[in-house]
Amino acid sequence: MKQWMDVWLLRFNVAKCNCVSYGKNLDNVNHIIQYQMKHCILHKTDTVKDLGIIFDTQLKFVDHINTTISKAYQRLGIIKRNFIYLTHTQFSFTV
Length: 95
Description:
The chain starts with a helix and ends with a helix. It is α+β, with helices and mostly antiparallel strands. The longest helix is centred in the last third of the chain and has 21 residues, at 62-82. It is 40% helix and 17% strand. It has four helices and six strands, in the order H-E-H-E-E-E-E-E-H-H. The chain has one domain.
């Protein structure tokens, strides 16, 4: 990784880097293997958000789906709260 960073002149913020292992039966592996970058041990996590998608260790996307549904309900609540006093005649659109 260090060679790649040197070739492309890129630096990583180690504090923002996480380590996630994907697959089944990861209990034994997670306790043995430690990944490090620039002599700092990377934090192990069960979920990571990359490009707006939440990935978990088994790639089931349950957390991502629940978060998306929660955001949709929040936006629906805002719409309902702001348009509660509109009548049908005020709500008609002209195209």
